[in-house]
Amino acid sequence: MRPLIIIGNWKMHGNLASNSDWVKTVCRGMEQGMPAGRQYAVCVPSPYLAQCDALIKDCSLAFLSLGAQDASAFAAGAYTGDVAASMLKELGCAYVIVGHSERRQFHYETDEQIAEKALQVLDNGMTPVICVGESADERNSGREVEVVRSQIARQVAVLQDRLADCLIAYEPLWAIGTGKVASAQVAQDMHRAIRLQLAEFNEDVASHVGILYGGSVKPDNAVELFAMPDIDGGLIGGASLNSQDFLAICQA
Ligand SMILES: O=C[C@H](O)COP(=O)(O)O
Fold first, then answer.
1. Ligand 1 neighbour 99 (Cβ under 6 A)
2. What confidence score (pLDDT) does residue 101 get?
3. Are 19 and 44 in contact (CB under 8 A)?
4. By Cβ atoms counted within 10 A, which residue in 125, 179, 181, 241 is the most buried?
C-alpha cells in the first residue's frame, strides 16, 4: 500500500518572518492530529533551508519533512550558483523536486539532466520528486500521453530500478498556477498511464512508485483527487503558501 504524500512547494516565495509563522502554524495544526499513514513535506527556497530545518526539528513531528526545489546534476565542482545534493542532505532535506516545469521552461533543463539530478538526490539518501507534464497545446492536439510517456521513458533509461525510490509528480502545465485543476478523472487517467508504462519496465517498480498530482490543488478539490486509486498525493504550489490552506489539504 502506497502512503499518501503531500508536498508544499513555496517556489520563490517567503521571508524569515513569514516562514517562521508558517512552520509554527502548520506544526500546531498537525499536533492536533492528522490522518494516519500520511507523509508531509515543504520544499522551500534554498536560502531558507537551514531556518526551516531548525523550525521543523523543533516541532518533532515524524511525518513532517523538509525538501528543496532543485539540486545540481553534479556532485561538486565549478558550477556557480548551483547547490549539490550533499549540501541539501546536510541541511536536513528528505525530498528534492527535480525537473519542475518552471526549471524546464526558464532554465532549459532536459529530461537527461533531470534524471542525473535525481541520481544525485538518490545517492545522497533523499527522495527525488521527478516532475512531468504536458502543455495546453500538447493536450489540445491529443499528444498528452505521448509527451508524458517520452518524459518517463528518459527517466527509466537512466534510473532503471532506482525509480522505485523516487516520486513522480504529474503536473499538467495548463493547470499550474492557473486555477484550472485537472478533473480527478483526467488526472487519474494520466497517473494510470504512467503506472502502466512503468509496469512495462518493471511491475514491482510500478506498484511502489508514488505518483503525486500537481496543478491548482486547493482544499476544495483535494478530497476528490486524493481518492483516485493512482493518485498518491499532491505537489501543492500556490495553496501551500497559506498555512491554513496547506493544513486543510493535508487533512483532506
Ligand atoms: O509545484 C507545484 C505546482 O507547480 C503546482 O502549482 P499550483 O498549485 O500553484 O498550481
1. no
2. 97
3. yes
4. 181
* 24 marked among binding-site residues: no
State if residue 188 touches ligand 1 by the CB under 6 angstroms criterion: no
Report the residue among 104, 132, 236 best suited for mutation to probe ligand 1: largest number of ligand atoms under 8 A from its CB.
236
List the catalytic residues.
Answer: 100, 171
pTM: 0.97
Distance CA 60, CA 37 (A): 16
pLDDT reported for residue 34: 95
Q: What angle do CA 251, 222, 228 make, to 5 degrees?
A: 110
Q: Ligand 1: distance of its center to the CA of 79 in Å?
A: 28
Cell of 161: 530500478
Consecutive 10-residue averages of pLDDT for the chain (252 residues):
95 98 97 94 98 96 97 98 98 98 97 98 98 97 98 97 97 94 96 98 95 97 97 98 98 94
Residue type at 43 in one-letter notation: C
Alpha helices in 125-242 (DSSP H): 136-140, 144-159, 184-201, 203-208, 219-226
**Structural domains of the chain, ranges and CATH numbers in brackets:** 5-10+50-58+67-250 (3.20.20.70)
**Which residue's CA is the closest to the ligand 1 atom numbered 3?**
237
Contact criterion met (CB below 8 Å) for 233 and 173: no
CA 239 to ligand 1: nearest atom: 8
| Chain Cα centroid distance, residue 230 | 15
Complex ipTM value? 0.99
Q: How many CA atoms does the CB half-sphere of 228 hold within 13 Å?
A: 24
Find out whether 42 and 242 touch, Cβ atoms under 8 Å.
no
Distance 77 CA to ligand 1 centre (A): 31
